[in-house]
Write a structure and sequence with these properties.
heterodimer, A: alpha/beta, Rossmann fold, 2 domains, seven-stranded mixed beta sheet, five-stranded mixed beta sheet, about 20% strand, globular, B: alpha/beta, two-stranded antiparallel ribbon, 12 helices, binds thiamine diphosphate, binds magnesium ion
């Protein structure tokens, strides 16, 4: 199996879907000959033409809205926000038009919204956000967040095939830092199914996206404790059974994410555990997240805000002592 | 390997179809649909006053010529995003008055089976994508429908409607600009009914919106929105242009909202002279008078419409309320979307296979 970076795996996923189905097309800013701000769509315009790799004007509502319209008319659009932060400018089309379409009129909206997200590179308050939780209050949207090249490709395939609007959170920090084996050809990673990134029996760290790697690093050798790392992969709808199975096994849970704290995905996971697995717990469920502040620009400030390996280690140690 | 081109591919321009022709029967149909729209809305208002319509009630009183004239130009395979003053367009595409009334009463059998109310609907089976409240969100969505036709090289048109108020919103600009840049096969119908809720035109824009069409690189046409044939002609021309790769058209239909914004609104902000000016130009009365002067019999249409409404109202009132146990169903789709074809009563389309256009 070839080794690809996380970014190359996304590109490979896009290419496979476009080869597989003529109705799949991409739209977004600077994604054509330029290949996108991060070069995720590099080479696609040359292979598929600029009609299917459409360089749109700077108009997020039009991008999302046009994707909705094309989707209900039988196309399978994959729209890119240059940074996930800009989805705020197309928010209305997603939460009011796309999300409610099927519930209101039985009309499916098979579209993928690519959202390059996350910080760690001095992107500042407008290029570093993790806005995934915004969309959990808009029933009708699915949200995925791959953490490995293998899942980046497989979740792209599933997102494209799913008949619902799927928000695909791709973590910018992983783009070129992470390599892994990725199978040739098409394959799908099932939606709403967690992946156990490492098995363990004493404590579970639940994470997604780039934080899966922070969790793995932090618990690689934690005083010899057997620590399980669960990668959520799909944030909505959550794999509640997958989460609870690990909780029942280890009885101690740290929930980790890079997004801000209040009403984040972690809060939802904690509530789920409190409601469904209270009897199984041997200690409080602990959250490690960014605090409720915008992501600052300057490196020491940004480091102070984004969850670091040591924080995860400390949280696990404290909980293990229970 | 496809060669990248700077501009998206276009349909080859070909000869335009000859000017839109209306038969005598077509003209009677235009009148019939306007009568049907008014009668359905009057009935809905009656049901509202009886407390059978929850929430508020919105209608298109005085604007019947706009939705009827424009939607009459559509072919079966065209697609429509219909707005809140355009009941006539739904009726033309094939939604029955009974389903409209059931929709407004929140019943099963209404177009959204109680999931949404008032004019927030569109029957996907008839090629319609229902509006959302946010204005003018359907303009970018209609661009997407048109984009699909263009990418598949299909001679089809997307049509959408909006009010004067909507032209002030940023999404309006985004849709116009994208439509212009890609020369999309789309027809925008702007219903200038002089007000956005209580806000008059002079507080809405400094330049007549129709003039903006040129700055987006496409045709802008102003028509008398109370003349159903004039609206139809403009729409038919715009559809023809779009179908052959000639790009979008913005049609600004001048009209007047003759009821309040909703049934709760007494329109006290409308100067009586303005109201009287438009009252003397009622779209149904003027058209019926024109047909009468040409010797066409129209009385039977009134009777037929009244009978239809009796039947349809009875049907709607017999529809049950939805089962509360189903409230959480259908959030996610399990099947791909299917938009069906709409009715296309214009004689030009009758006898043609749905795939012709
Ligand atoms: C984005 C947005 N803001 C506010 C509203 C509330 N609202 C509903 S209808 C309306 C007036 C719309 O005016 P216009 O576009 O002229 O349409 P008309 O009702 O006159 O046909 C307003 C302000 C809305 N629907 N959407
Ligand atoms: Mg208005």
């Amino acid at each position: 199996m070839p080794e690809l970076t996380y970014l190359e795996a996304i590109t490979d996923g896009l290419r496979e879907e476009m080869r597989h189905d003529e109705s799949v097309f991409c739209l977004g800013q600077d994604i054509g000959n330029f290949g996108g701000a991060f070069k995720v769509t590099e080479g696609l315009a040359a292979e598929f033409g600029r009609d299917r790799v459409w360089d749109t004007p700077l108009a997020e509502s039009a991008i999302v809205g046009a994707a909705v319209g094309a989707a209900v008319e039988g196309m399978r659009p994959i729209a890119e926000m240059q940074f996930s932060d800009f989805i705020a400018c197309g928010f209305d089309q997603l939460v009011n038009v796309a999300a409610k379409m099927h519930y209101r009129q039985g009309l499916a909206v098979p579209m993928v919204m690519r959202l390059p997200s996350g910080g760690g590179f001095s992107g500042g308050p407008f290029h570093s956000q993790n806005p995934e939780a915004w969309f959990l209050q808009a029933p009708g949207l699915k949200v995925v967040a791959p953490s490995t090249p293998e899942d980046a490709k497989g979740l792209m395939a599933s997102a494209v095939r799913d008949p619902n609007p799927v928000l695909y959170m791709e973590h910018k920090h992983l783009y070129r830092r992470l390599r892994g084996e990725v199978a040739d050809g098409r394959y799908e990673t099932p939606l709403s199914q967690v992946r156990v990134a490492r098995e363990g029996s004493e404590l579970t760290v639940i994470a997604y996206g780039a934080m899966v790697h922070t969790a793995l690093e932090a618990t690689e050798d934690l005083d010899g404790a057997g620590i399980e790392v669960v990668d959520l992969r799909t944030l909505c709808p959550l794999d509640t059974e997958g989460i609870l199975a690990s909780v029942r096994k280890t009885s101690k849970v740290v929930v980790l994410h890079e997004a801000t704290r209040s009403c984040g995905i972690g809060a939802e996971v904690c509530a789920l555990i409190a409601e469904e697995a209270f009897e199984d717990l041997d200690g409080p469920v602990v959250r490690v997240t960014a605090p409720d502040v915008p992501i600052p620009f300057s490196p020491p400030l940004e480091r102070a805000v984004l969850p670091q390996v040591d924080q995860v280690r400390d949280a696990c140690r404290e909980l293990l002592g229970y | 390997m496809a060669t990248p081109t700077a501009r998206p591919a276009q349909l080859e321009p070909r000869e335009r179809d000859t000017a839109a022709q209306l038969t005598v029967e077509d003209r009677r149909e235009l009148l019939r649909y306007m009568l049907l729209m008014r009668a359905t809305e009057e009935r809905a208002l009656g049901l509202y006053r009886q407390g059978k319509v929850p929430g508020s009630h919105y209608d298109g009183r005085g604007q019947e010529a706009v939705s009827v004239g424009s939607a009459f130009a559509l072919s079966p395979r065209d697609r429509a995003c219909i707005l809140h003053r355009d009941l006539g367009a739904h009726l033309i595409r094939g939604v029955t008055p009974g389903r409209v009334l059931a929709q407004m009463m929140g019943r099963v059998g209404g177009v959204t089976n109680g999931r949404d109310g008032n004019m927030h609907f569109g029957d996907p089976g008839l090629g319609c994508v229902g509006m959302v409240s946010m204005l003018p969100d359907m303009a970018p969505v209609a661009c997407g429908l048109a984009l699909a036709f263009q990418m598949r090289r299909e001679p089809r048109v997307a049509m959408t409607w909006f009010g004067d108020g909507s032209t002030a919103n940023g999404q309006w600009h985004e849709a116009m600009n994208v439509a212009g840049v890609r020369r999309l096969p789309i027809v925008f119908i702007l219903e200038n009914n002089q007000y956005a809720y209580s806000t008059p035109n002079e507080l809405e824009f400094a330049v007549d919106p129709v003039e903006r069409a040129a700055t987006y690189g496409f045709a802008g046409v102003k028509v008398d929105g109370n003349d159903v044939e004039a609206v139809f002609q403009a729409a038919a021309e715009a559809c023809d242009r779009a179908r052959v790769g000639g790009g979008p058209t913005l049609i600004q239909a001048e009209t007047m909202r003759m009821h309040g914004h909703g049934a709760h609104d007494d329109m006290s902000y409308v100067p009586p002279e303005l109201f009287e000016h438009w009252a003397a130009r009622d779209p149904i009365e003027t058209f019926e008078k024109r047909l009468g002067e040409e010797g066409l019999e129209t009385e039977s249409l009134h009777k037929a419409v009244a009978e239809t409404l009796e039947r349809e109202t009875e049907w709607a009132l017999a529809c049950p309320m939805p089962d509360p146990a189903t409230a959480a169903e259908g959030v996610f789709a399990t099947e791909d979307p299917v938009l069906g074809d709409g009715h296309a009563p214009w004689s030009r389309w009758s006898g043609r296979a749905a795939t012709d256009a």
